[in-house]
Amino acid sequence: MLYNDPLEISFEEWLKLLADSEVSKEPYTEILKIVYESNYSGICAFDIAAKLKVARPFNM
User: Fold this and answer.
1) Would you list the domain boundaries of the chain?
2) pLDDT value at position 2?
3) How many whole angstroms separate alpha carbon 18 and alpha carbon 58?
4) How far apart, in Å, do the first and last CA atoms of the chain sit?
5) From what superkingdom does this record's organism come (predicted)?
6) Which of 8, 9, 43, 46 has the highest Cβ tally under 10 A?
């Protein structure tokens, strides 16, 4: 884990961020969808890259 600070963001704030095209750009929204659909089961960068059909994992 990179950060130890708790994330204190409301549902409404998440919606606002996701709706803002300057904040949530492709492929980030696709990555969020993949993580969400994985039920947060510890999906790794390799698995995300495979689902996005890219040659190798990448850092954000």
Assistant:
1) 23-60
2) 58
3) 21
4) 14
5) Bacteria
6) 43
Q: Write out the chain's pLDDT in tens, 60 residues.
A: 455 677 788 889 988 988 888 877 777 888 888 888 887 667 888 888 888 888 877 665
Asked if 43 and 35 count as a contact pair (C-beta separation under 8 A), the reply is: yes
Q: Under a CB-based contact definition with an 8 Å cutoff, are residues 57 and 49 in contact?
A: yes
Instruction: Scan for tokens 């969808």, then name that residue.
Output: 33
Distance CA 18, CA 6 (A): 20
Pairwise CA distance, residues 2 & 50, whole Å: 23
Nearest partner of 45 among 30, 57, 32, 31, judged by Cα: 57
